[in-house]
Amino acid sequence: MTTPKQISIPTFNTEAEEVEWWDAHPDAATEVMRRALVSGKARRKVPLRTVTMRLSVPDIEAAQDLAQRRGLPYQTDIKMLLHEAIGREQLL
Question: What is the DSSP secondary-structure string of the chain?
Answer without folding.
Answer: -PPPSS--PPP-SSHHHHHHHHHH-HHHHHHHHHHHHHHTSS-SS-----------HHHHHHHHHHHHHHTS-HHHHHHHHHHHHHHHHHH-
